Amino acid sequence: MTGSGTVDLRSLIRDIPDFPKPGIVFKDITPLLADAAALRATVDAFVERYRGKVDVVLGIESRGFIFG
pTM score, two decimals? Predict the structure, then answer.
C-alpha cells in the first residue's frame, strides 16, 4: 500500500540474509508490528482480500497468531 494517506508496508519488512542458514532470506516483520498504522493497514488488507472466502484461520507460530 502506497500513496497519499497510506502506509508503505513493504518498507517495514526487513530482509535478513542467510538466516537461519545460508541461502535463506528471513523476512523480519518486527518493524511492521511496531508501527500501529502499518499493523492496522495489514489487518485491513487481509480482511478485504479474504472476506467471505475463509471459514477458519490458523496461526501456527507467534507472529502468525497475531494476524490470525
Answer: 0.73
Burial (CB < 10 A; 0-12, 13-18, 19+), residue 63, is middle
Q: Which of 3, 6, 15, 4 is nearest to 40 (CA)?
A: 6
- Give every CB contact of residue 29 below 8 A, 6+ residues apart in sequence: 12, 13, 63
Evaluate whether 41 touches 1 at the Cβ level (below 8 Å). yes
38, 32 contact by CB (below 8 A)? yes
The one-letter amino acid code at 12 reads: L
- Mean pLDDT for back-to-back runs of 10 residues, the chain (68 residues): 65 96 96 94 92 88 77
Taking alpha carbons only, the member of 43, 36, 41 closest to residue 57 is 43
